[in-house]
Design goal:
Largest sheet: 4 strands, antiparallel
Distance between the termini: 17 Å
Number of domains: 1
Radius of gyration: 19 Å
Oligomer: single chain
Number of strands: 10
Structural class: alpha+beta
Number of helices: 12
Helix content: 55-70%
CATH class: Mainly Alpha
Order of helices and strands: HEHHHHEEEHHEHHEEHHEEEH
CATH architecture: Alpha/alpha barrel
CATH topology: Glycosyltransferase
Shape: globular
Amino acid sequence: MSNDMTWSDRADLAQAGLTTVFGAPWPQYLDNWSPGFPGSNDTFNYWWLAHVIDARLDAFVRTGDTHWLAEAQQVRRNLVERNGGGLFNDYFDDMTWFGLALERLGRLGADPQATTDAIALWQHCRALGWNPTYGWSLAWRVPQLEYKNTPANGPFAILGARLFQATNDHQFLDLARAAFDWITHTLRTPSGFIEDGINRLGDGRIDTQWRFTYNQGLYIGAGVALAEATADQGFLDAVWPTIDASLTELTEGGVFRSEGDDGDEGLFKGIYYRYAAAALHAREHPTLRSFVEGSTNMLWSAGFTPDSGFLPGNDWRRGPTGPVPYSTYLSALMALEARAGLTP
């Protein structure tokens, strides 16, 4: 059965599996882990839900089936309801991820309120978190305004570039460029590798020990978004060394290494694949294409069985060895959607 399926078929199966494996009664909506365990649903994962919106929109773009657009809108309602009825929290990276999902929902679903909310999230982040410590850039969270990192500035740059395209308002583009330049000058190594952040402990140090696919994908995505917004191919030139560095420094056996088992880390690889696919649509990179194809082949072979369906682990060369967070599943789903967009 599996060998006869197209990549679009596989993405469809994985989209359905997110609901069948993790679906829960409202307002939980999705169980955090499968199988669950005592306390496994105690955490409200705001930013995971933002990525669920984007994943459902991937299916809508691929298929044209408005069912997936309705699913994305339902996730939006769930996130806001569980967030106390509002858009904002204390984490600027969380809010920019939600802003990105809402901007896309507005663009694809002709929902002006979604676009308005995306702008409100961007403005809130700028007003509370944009400051000159270690160079003008976005802080990670409200209680820690002097800690700056790629996880906040990367999606802020992507969101700014997209809001500029939606509104032609240069305030969005100006700060998107500034956030991208800040990452380039502060956290990019000579090889092109993107470090995580600076001054987390108040000592001005860069966290070189956190070597995540997430950060590489964000820088790639920001460069692609800015190239699209400005028609300046220099932004693509800037991210090509990061693609090469990520494939050299973070892979093992044809896939990215497992980045941790606590939950959040499971989502990191999917972010890379989303923006790697965007880069490939913008400009061909044979090594990256070969990696995306080979690694998703392994992901599917290890995660799918005809009897049990699709359930991935954090190491894409083998199946899960214990409970799986839906962040890990979502990461794999995003990779399958990326592959389906390249190889239907």
